[in-house]
Amino acid sequence: MLETFDRTERDDVITRTFADHTPMPPPRRSRARKALVIGMASLLAAAGVTALAGTAQAASTLGAAAAEKGRYFGTAVAASHLGEAAYASTLDTEFNSVTPENEMKWDAVEPNRNSFSFGSADQIVSHAQSKGMKVRGHTLVWYSQLPGWVSGLGASDLRTAMNNHITQVMQHYKGKIHSWDVVNEAFQDGNSGARRSSPFQDKLGDGHIEEAFRTARSVDSAAKLCYNDYNTDGVNAKSNAVYNMVKDFKSRGVPIDCVGFQSHFNPNSPVPSDYRANLQRFADLGVDVQITELDIEGSGSAQAANYSTVVNACLAVSRCTGITVWGVTDKYSWRASGTPLLFDGNYNKKAAYTSTLAALGGSGGGGGGGGGDAACTVSYSRTNDWSDRFNGQVTVTAGSAAITDWTVTVTVSSPQKVSATWNGSPSWDSSGNVMTMKPSGNGSVAAGASTSFGFTVMKNGNSAAPAIGSCTAS
Ligand code: 9MR
Questions:
Q1: 145 lines ligand 1 (CB under 6 A)
Q2: What domains can be seen in the chain, in order of their start residue?
């Protein structure tokens, strides 16, 4: 069977291409408690209130918790969102690896033959490097997002173009990429285990995959070289075919270091019950395994339980070196109408965030249901909105003990500027975009009581909400 679907159709694609209807695992937490928390979150969201929480100690994050387990925790990133304060601050706080979502694909970096444009991808790599994050390269040889000039080449020219593309792109990023998806999605869905029709497959045959890996190794011997695919997460005909290819490569010394399991899950393609076993059998071939594009449709405790299942599976396989979720926030997910990620459209931590952090062994994340005993929590709302400016209010609420002091950072997106503040004592970083607010008096807030400060943001053409950091208190 030949798959001819177009990935730009977004979320419906995977829904209709995989028929393994294994039931979802049962939720691990009390449905009643979660429902209450989610109900409260919905009420707050409906009122335009963003709730955030923090503790007196440094908050644990996904990246830090994963690092303690010897793994990375990454996300797909779009260069176009890096200028959005809440996006950048969530990314920078929580993740320690990034994958450019589209910016390193063939159509983006070599739109015309031998004419390379690395601008957007460079922007992501520079951002990641400046924050100490690692970068996954995605992807060198893929049938999709492939410019027309490539598809039009004859076999000999296509081989030259493929090797040149791998060489130029890997050379440009040499030393900056921890793992490359050298070949992406070369196998068909369904039960055939056959290769997918593509210009590479149709004109160069099975051997183009081996050739791509050999070329890649010759360019950057330090980067891990991965084969990456979807619907290979459990044991099935497609994953068996990939398994056999990897086994063959290892037995013949073809340079392959890792296999990426995209892990796009939804009710029609749930987390398979043999997910861990499948990761393990690949690891047993002598390659690393990585979860490369994780997202799970759903919400609340069921979604949270599925995320922990995935994290636990990775942690149970010593060669599972990291997890990447396919986006920072539901707002920008490739699944147009879904909510498959860890942060909601307002960058609130979801129950899935909390369960993911807990599965990684972290704690103290708060928000999204079940954050434990925070010293103080903050919530934000836009109290007035005009064409040129808006007023924001942050409410600081003490936890189960009184606090005597508190600090909250507010980051606005340039060219926005804070023009006025009240009920607090602000200080600024050198960019003028990050305001650190402390109380103007002694800052005493009784257990469970609240205090608020406010500010006016001049939009200067940008109406984005500010990023409100966690509350710290002593
Ligand atoms: O998330 C990507 C989306 O923005 C693009 O429109 C789409 C185009 O093919 O690709 C999406 O990312 C895909 C990834 O590169 C490969 N695996 C499947 C991902 C989701 O479709």
A1: yes
A2: 62-360 (3.20.20.80), 376-473 (2.60.40.290)
